[in-house]
Design goal:
2 copies of one chain form a homodimer.
Chain A lengths: L1 H8 L5 H8 L3 H7 L8 H14 L5 H7 L6 E5 L5 H16 L4 E5 L4 H10 L7 E4 L6 H9 L4 E4 L9 E5 L1 H14 L4 E7 L4 H16 L3 E7 L4 H13 L6 E4 L2 H14 L9 E3 L16 E3 L2 H12 L6 E4 L2 E3 L7
Parallel strand pairs in A: 1-2, 1-3, 3-4, 4-5, 5-11, 6-7, 6-8, 8-9
Antiparallel strand pairs in A: 10-12
Helix pairs in contact in A: 2-3, 2-4, 6-13, 9-10, 11-12
Chain A binds a DNA duplex through helix 3 and helix 5.
DNA sequence: CTGAAAGCGCTTACAG
DNA sequence: CTGAAAGCGCTTACAG
């Protein structure tokens, strides 16, 4: 009966309702649902019983108003349709969920202006932290948020901002290894496929790769496209293979472009991989492991990143954490 | 100076702070930031000025406490690493964002038990609605949430629950077309690849396809795997092609499995598509358009679904909306 | 262990 | 148009 009328009323039960029915104070109810608070087993039982009967659920948003720790976490993400971003978000939301955090997701576009707006919006949620997975928001916007008291965690942005937590990749080591891989494979005419507008993390890959390769005295041609999509990868491969100096090794700055490059090299130009051409990617997206690609690449430490994000929330991680991306040997690189 | 001290204080400015500095009441501040509220241009200007100086941002969570409409929306999603789910989430979060809604994301696993817990958790946020993108939460849990006053929107679950809003696909029409496609292609020995544990939406595809095919008097073999992954698609294709009656047409219940099937058919069994074998998928994930797959499939109406979700929030859409998935002709089906 | 009270940051009738 | 007041649903010192 009671439950039924409550339902049609449409209003969810509040702590007061529970207190009344259990014959205790609001405080007692609150304590029952707070870990480590002191309630006698007896009143606890009474509260639990009443709560059950009224289908009471603590209102997390109201709780967040008085209690710092249960405030939500904002995740700024873009390009969710791309495998790398989706996989990263998957890991991070799962980890946050395990840590009892609530995730608010803000889907910003690739556009820096839109991203700035979104980052600013973050302040409206009084989130305990904002996690930036997108390369889009420009550094000055991140700085502004920090100045306004936001705690910001930057994932895989190789820039270096003060008072901001960074979780990034040791691109220096990874790129040294990448160059060695091409050397050992016997490639002497290498191309790097990147994007014209570079996020800090793309820039880091590009610069270290270029640097280490130049130490080997090897020819490097750099091709830059408008985006980092599959189609751009195809486009790049086409231009490289009909160019004056078709490469014998191509490093795509991300796996998504590499997939496009592979399909074009094989289908349009009948190249055999890795015999005629070696290809290396970065990210280890799911498709890299598909037999149609079998792409040699570097694995983003997805789970480690997710764990680090969670630890950063409670300041349990160093403000500047560098993880390593390990090579994943598959079939597109001679070894 | 002022800004600086505020920053080091670490506390964000509240409406009271702004009111004090502007020399007006809290109400005036509130009204300034509420669309359509009545404030004189003069006080409005004073408030805006003070807000600017104090870097004031309305606390959305606190606002949600008193104002129904600005309560968040919960999105229950699973398998974010899979393209279909990621693409759908991308569209929906973008649409919600445009509609000024805040999205809380709950990443449930494939496991019905975990999904139930997550759905129940939803009640803790007093969300104005819960959008279920995952097939995982069982019907009785959905019903329970509705009974407790939650407004639930089911996306692409072909089940039929009372008092729940549904956005689904007209599988009947789609599957009739699918059968016609196979007929016209001259396939007479068809296989259907599905999953053992079927969500309502997989079940609908399977049943309508089976029904229409049987009307044609064609042999159909059904293969069911443990999951709907790329690897399962490979596995299915292997067993079908070494089986007693290798099919000349295969309908994969989703694109992801179809990709695995294509790679296996081409690489391991040297089948030419569509000459030796026709393949049809469902979802139109990004990879279906990649030249390595060029998969003929049915397109989920991603944007329409997202729009419908938003309209459902304000009850501007019918409680039961059926959208159509149109065939996308590519290279894996003779026409 | 427990309750009354103040506080978190907002909105919205209610009078004026 | 404007302000004082009550309310949204919680938590947390403070006394007892």
């Amino acid at each position: 009966m009671k439950a039924k009328s409550h339902i049609s009323g449409g209003h969810a039960a509040s702590a007061s309702d529970v207190a009344r029915r259990a014959g205790v104070s609001r405080s007692a109810v609150s304590r029952t649902f707070t870990d480590g608070a002191s309630v006698s087993p007896d009143t606890r039982a009474k509260v639990l019983r009443a709560a059950e009967e009224l289908h009471y659920h603590v209102n997390f948003l109201a709780r967040g108003l008085s209690k710092q720790e249960s405030r939500p976490v904002c995740i700024l993400v873009s390009n969710l349709h791309k495998p790398y971003h989706a996989q990263l978000l998957d890991h991070i939301t799962t980890a946050l969920q395990k840590a009892q955090r609530i995730s608010i997701i803000i889907n910003v576009g690739d556009d820096p202006a839109a991203a700035s707006g979104a980052l600013e919006q973050t302040l409206n949620y009084r989130a305990s932290a904002t996690i930036v997975l997108s390369g889009a928001p420009p550094a000055h916007m991140v700085r502004r948020c920090v100045e306004l008291g936001q705690s910001v965690i930057l994932v895989n942005r190789a820039d270096d901002l003060p008072d901001v937590r960074h979780i990034s990749i040791d691109y220096e080591t990874a790129m040294r290894t990448a160059v060695q891989m091409f050397m050992r494979a016997g490639c002497r005419n290498i191309a790097l496929v990147s994007r014209a507008v570079r996020t800090p993390s793309l820039l880091a890959r590009e610069e270290f790769f270029t640097q280490y390769l130049s130490e080997q005295g090897i020819t490097l041609q750099i091709w830059r496209g408008a985006s980092t999509t599959y189609e751009t990868g195809q486009h790049a491969m086409r231009e490289l293979l009909v160019g004056l100096h078709p490469p014998d090794g191509v490093f795509f700055i991300n796996d998504l472009m590499a997939c496009g490059g592979i399909d074009t090299a094989r289908r349009e130009f009948k190249r055999r991989l890795p015999e005629d051409l070696c290809i290396l990617g970065f990210d280890d997206i799911a498709q890299a492991a598909w037999s149609g690609y079998d792409l040699t690449t570097f694995a983003q430490p997805y789970s480690e990143i997710a764990d680090a994000v969670v630890q950063n929330l409670s300041n349990a991680a160093p403000a500047r954490l560098t993880l390593t991306a390990r090579p994943v040997w598959r079939g597109t690189m001679r070894s």
